[in-house]
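Case study 2.
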Amino acid sequence: MSRLAPIFRFGGVLGVALGLALGGCQDFSDMTASIAGQETATKLPTDDAALRAYADHWGKIYAERPGEKYASINYARALRALTRYKEAAAVMQTAAVKAPKDFQVLGAYGKALADNGDLMQARDVLSRSYSPDRPNWDFLSAQGSVADRLDDHERAQSFYRQALKIAPNQPAVLSNLGLSFALSKQLPLAEQTLRHAASLPGADLRVRENFALVLALEGKFGEAVQVSERDMSPDQAASNVAAIREMIAQNDSWRALQSGARRKAATKTADASPAG
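Prediction:
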């Protein structure tokens, strides 16, 4: 919500189809993990200048050791954060060629492919990024995001639920699940899930952006502004929510989601009413 472009990064423009637009909100963020006592993924800077410096640092290390696991993962993450998705996918492809059975490499490669829009390939790679006896909630959640973008929302929600069994109350996974409910026209359930995600200690800006987006889809613009004000000035929050409101009014896909959600809710109410 504070930056409209990241919300719609998979779609390119505000008038894209709803699935692409909401898919852009879903979280492919990387989690730190240890190998041989060393973290494979260090925390990304949030400042643009620091992020570019971080990318330059790992780019130099990668140039000296192309395909090396630690350098590849960190460099690719920085490239993805800078929206240089094609380069990130190429970096991780090199690493995957060198380590075709390394789960962390395959997971990072799958995320980079998803960011680049290579969804079918991402689905295949992510399916090989863990084993039944060693499931990874982060990569399961990424699989869910890919399934959502392929319009397979039921399967996506299955992946998120599997991830939540491993990492209960993980805000990023709950946020993705909430958006998946929105994509399948279940706005009240989407709001409930995202409200819970936003209330958790680990919730970040992206989770609150998604919560505010769903509130706006339900017409709860005032509350959407209140949620956005946690991360920006009141004027910025009001401006961003107004932009979303205008987009909903102008875009047929968003209006179709709203009307479809209302029809679902009305049907449930009618089914629950006593006969006679």
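The chain has two domains: 1-28+131-268, 43-129.
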